[in-house]
Amino acid sequence: MVLPGIGFACGVAATAIVLGSGVAPVGHAEAQAAAPAAAAVPEALIARIGQLESALGRMEAAAAERSDTLARRIDRAEAFRSPQGERFIAAALVLQASVATARPWLREYQAMARLAPPGMLPAPLSEVLLSHAARGLPTEAELRERYIALVPQLVARVPRQGDMVQQAVTTMRGAVASIGLVAAPAPSDQEQAIEGVVQHLRRGNLAAAVGDAAALDPSLQPLLAGWLAQAGARLAVEQAVQETLLRMLAAPPRG
After folding, report:
1. Comparing C-alpha atoms, which of 224, 215, 165 is closest to residue 192?
2. Positive or negative: CA dihedral 87, 92, 95, 97
3. How far, CA to CA in Å, does 188 sit from each of 24, 95, 179, 202?
4. Which of these, 128, 124, 119, lies nearest to 88 by C-alpha position?
């Protein structure tokens, strides 16, 4: 009885050793494989958190910008709806009508400036208007008449092509053509450009007239200097008044 019991006990022990020796290596290998993954999880998580924080920062910056824009629009809307805003627009319209004349508009400008809501009359616009308010500027009709009066001098000073003989023939032909004996010589490019400025002025396109006049031959620019200065000043003043009105009228409507 004793010997069989001892044999059975030895068999159970051997089986346990064999099973234990087979299980232990498998558990160790799994632990080794899981260790790098466990270490990699925090790094990936940290990177993801960094991305989320960066995206959240951009969202906060965009929200702050939208908030500032909305606040400015609300302020402008309140200024537009206020009695002072309405009087400012009325004063700007009066100034616009005054600027179209040749008389000074200092009083009209000062009245508008006193009523201007914050930010509605920036310094560059104010300086342009104030620089000419005390004396005024020639009207567009006056500028047209003054340019037309300059045309004969401009045409006479246009650079002629060819030698002296060709120039003399062209001049003589022009003189004979003036009494109807021969056809007038074809106008040069500069003469056509001079006439083009006249056509712009007759159509009321002062900006195009100024641009084309400034592009005429350099030899003609001394004759045009005074006219260009006055015409350019009128364009700048008219644009400043228009920009002032547009800034105010761009306020969002009552919601």
Report:
1. 215
2. negative
3. 106, 43, 20, 21
4. 119
CA distance 7 to 136: 128
- pTM more than 0.70: no
Residue 241: count other Cβ atoms within 10 Å of its Cβ. Answer: 23
Tens digit of pLDDT at every position of the chain (255 positions): 444 444 444 444 444 444 444 444 444 555 555 555 555 567 777 777 778 778 777 877 776 676 565 555 545 545 455 788 889 999 999 999 999 999 999 999 999 999 998 888 999 999 999 999 999 999 999 999 999 999 999 999 998 764 444 444 445 445 444 555 445 556 688 999 999 999 999 999 999 999 999 999 999 999 999 999 999 999 999 999 999 998 887 755 444
The pair of structure tokens assigned to 34 is 């899981």
All residues at 6 or more sequence positions from 111 whose CB lies less than 8 Å from its CB, including other chains: 91, 94, 95
- Burial (Cβ within 10 Å: 0-12, 13-18, ≥19) of residue 42: exposed
Q: Which long-range contacts (CB under 8 A, 24 or more apart) does 66-74 make?
A: 73/251, 73/252
Q: How far apart are CA 236 and CA 204, in angstroms?
A: 16
**How many Å is the maximal CA-CA distance in the chain?**
159
Distance CA 42, CA 236 (A): 64
